[in-house]
Amino acid sequence: MKRGLLLIDRGSREREASEELDVICQGIKAKGEYVFTDYCFLEVEPPYIEDGINKCLKEDIDSLTIVPYFLYPGKKIKNAVTDVMKFQKDTKVKFLVTKQMSMHKTLVDVVENRISTALKENQITLTTNEVDVMIIGHGSKDPNAQMSLDYIVNELKNSYRNVSRCWLEIEQPDIFEGIKKCEKDNPKVLIIVFYFLHEGAHVKTDINNDLIPALKNSNMKNTFITKHIGTDEKIIDLILERAREVENAN
Questions:
Q1: Two domains, one topology: 3-100+231-249 and 105-225
Q2: Which class does domain 105-225 fall in?
């Protein structure tokens, strides 16, 4: 069977987001058995879903595996799946839609890798049970988004002194409250994890608009920020795992 794979991303105007998706698609193509791999955006910037699907259907494939490339379940994923399935009735190519990228041990591994890298780069020699961690997520009205990030927090709690989370927008605690809570715990070192897939506007600008003044108003000295989730090799493996789940079931 000739398969293609299409990632559906939320969308970003930042050049880095498209560059990262290019790298991920190349990695999937190298590791998976696909005729082609590509990406499209739900909103913000073309190529939109219609562009992505039409491009895929010009390829010589029997099946198209569609991956909602989101860290949280919620309305945007439902919208993406709904938009995609509108095109199924007009083609003989079989559409297979995977789960999103949440509630998986691989994401815990990626976050731990980001933390250990930040400790190493800053020559921090403390044991992990002396290190505090705060994870910054995007925020969502969907309660399952909280559950997805809480899963990461709970999986990390046995490894670090304190692990907490806060949100860029929509939900509480926000970044200011998150920093206040961390300060009360009097950390020796605080590692702040940007739990975002891309180096888009949120990572480059929006988080720092709140985080920098929040840190300046705190008494904490040893605070370090990790790289976002990005193009980690484990993310490519997770996408392939999600794809094989639906492919093997069909």
A1: yes
A2: alpha beta
Q: Report angle CA 73, 75, 78 to the nearest 5 degrees.
A: 80
Say which residue the tokens 């800053």 belong to. 122
Per-residue pLDDT tens for 88-141? 999 999 999 999 999 999 999 999 999 999 999 999 999 999 999 999 999 988
CA distances from 146 to 36, 167, 232 (A): 34, 10, 23
Burial 186-224 (b: 16+ CB within 10 A, else e): ebebbbbbbbbbbbbebbeebbeebbeebbeeeebeebe
> 221: number of CA atoms within 13 Å, CB side?
1
Shortest CA distance to 104 belongs to which of 78, 135, 70?
Answer: 70
- Pairwise CA distance, residues 77 & 80, whole Å: 5
Domain ranges of the chain: 3-100+231-249, 105-225
pTM for the whole structure: 0.93
- Given CATH 3.40.50.300, say whether it is the number of domain 3-100+231-249: no
* DSSP letter (8 states) at residue 166: E
